[in-house]
């Protein structure tokens, strides 16, 4: 017939589960069957899988019977997810040749500088003294294909931090296919003075 042991356990609840201990015993039988890797995907005569069948039984019996159906559904779903995960682990992965890396953040936060640092193959020379580095605005989005040492091929998107460019950025911000680095400026060094975030905000308004 189309009824494996799981369906027999579920059907027997109507007659055999009268107490809390009956419910526990029945669930333990189901756990043993699942540990033995019993099939839980084939449908019964009503074309329902074990999960669908036990779900259809909820609210059709006594208190202990309904508790069994609810706990059995949770157990079956948990085991199905574990089995699905094991199957996925055995499947060959899809090779990824190119990684997308996005640099986002306010203007002047150092996105372009970080990008250049990632591309260096040897020890870099000392940078300019604090306050003497030259700020060069990135126009829109600077896209380039690079070979990053120790990482491999990457498409780098250096996104301008000025608000006027934000509308064009949305089409590139799909996190499922990219790594996004968000940078922000906590302070700056101008004319020998440390400039704090509120000062930076006032400066950005006039930039």
From TrEMBL:
Pfam families: Roc
Keywords assigned: Membrane, Transmembrane, Transmembrane helix
Transmembrane intervals: 171-191
Lineage: superkingdom: Eukaryota
UniProt-recorded name of the protein: Uncharacterized protein LOC102800992
Annotated organism of origin: Saccoglossus kowalevskii
Gene: LOC102800992
């Amino acid at each position: 017939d189309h009824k494996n042991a799981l369906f027999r356990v579920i059907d027997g609840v109507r007659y055999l589960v009268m107490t809390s201990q009956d419910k526990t015993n029945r669930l333990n039988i189901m756990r043993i069957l699942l540990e033995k890797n019993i099939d839980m995907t084939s449908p019964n005569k009503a074309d329902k899988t074990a999960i669908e069948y036990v779900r259809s039984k909820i609210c059709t019996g006594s208190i202990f019977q309904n508790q069994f159906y609810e706990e059995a559904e949770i157990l079956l779903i948990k085991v199905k997810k574990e089995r699905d995960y094991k199957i996925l682990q055995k499947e060959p992965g899809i090779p990824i040749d190119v990684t997308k890396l996005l640099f986002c953040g306010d203007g002047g936060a150092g996105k372009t500088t970080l990008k250049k640092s990632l591309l260096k193959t040897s020890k870099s020379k000392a940078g300019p003294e604090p306050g003497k580095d030259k700020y060069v605005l990135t126009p829109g989005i600077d896209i380039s294909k690079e070979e990053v040492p120790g990482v491999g091929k990457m498409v780098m998107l250096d996104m301008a931090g000025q608000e006027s460019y934000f509308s064009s950025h949305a089409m590139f911000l799909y996190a499922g296919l990219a790594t996004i680095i968000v940078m922000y400026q906590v302070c700056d060094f101008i004319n020998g003075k440390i400039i704090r975030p509120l000062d930076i905000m006032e400066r950005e308004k006039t930039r």
